[in-house]
Amino acid sequence: MGSGRTLKFAVCEVLQFAGLCVPLFIIMQRFAVIVAKVKTSATPPGDGSTAYWLIVASSIAYVTSTALLVWVPVKYMVFIKKKFLIGRKKWRPVTLVYVILSTLPCFAFLIASSEVQINNNLKHDTFTELPVSLVLFSLICIDVVERIRHCRLTGQANDMERDADIPSTVLTHVEQVTPVNTITPAVPGPAVPGPAVTTAYRLSPYAYTGPLRFLCASDARADVFVDSFVFWMDTVEMVRVAGHPLVYYSGWVFPIYIFSYLSCLRVVVMPHSPLLSSLGVALQDLPFFFVRVGLIAFFGFVTPILYLMKNLLVCLAFIYFNFMTKLRIFNTERMFF
Fold this sequence. Notes:
The chain crosses the membrane at residues 7-31, 51-74, 95-114, 126-145, 246-269, 289-321. By secondary structure, this protein is mainly alpha-helical.
């Protein structure tokens, strides 16, 4: 049992540290190649090799220093359960450190790569696929590891899922129901009280026990992977637009990467937290809507209309159901009393 826990702990730590280092090394190496080409093509030509190895050495020094001075101490304090870090488990300090130490410099070097090429009339690399996908995939991996590291990876799910904030699949709905008085019109007399129901339980609609019950297989630990990827789809699409040549070699990379980074900050809040709705609107859907409107106006349909409508409808639904329904004109209960 102890060896299994140690192995799981080691695997989780290696995956998270790899997610911290690998995107930085790849993006800074590609940035070093661009700077070397700029130095070589300059008039008079400079030493591109020196600039290349200087940037590579700087990336190694940055990763080493941040890992020793920030990453390892934060990990240590989290594992010994320092109250100022874990609190009531409303936020995740490890993901916050990752977003600051890895995602922020990666996006900064993506912007710098665009500006260097624009200023020197060079179109060498738009970072279209591997580096950008690797940054977001590493962020997804950090999110998944943080959510399932306290769960058992063998056997069936147990109560430890609560530590990872994974919802149960057995009881899906609990609500209070007030007593109901029914009146039988055919029999005159006082009203006959109906059954008083205090709590209503509704089991999962997929709880099937027939011969095809294997088709209804579901495990909350597996659902974490689906939820994590769906959580990032809008950000992935926005970052993908920045790789379009017309967009990348323009000033639009600034708002795209800045607002994409702000949307990444949502991962700091615990999953299924009540704050996620307002943060999703404020940090993602509202700014993404205006950025996409501008992109379509300047470059045409470089981004799908589907995501534009998603941002618009999410913002409108959030405002309507959380604020406008409280007004007297939309509150039908107050209108009749």
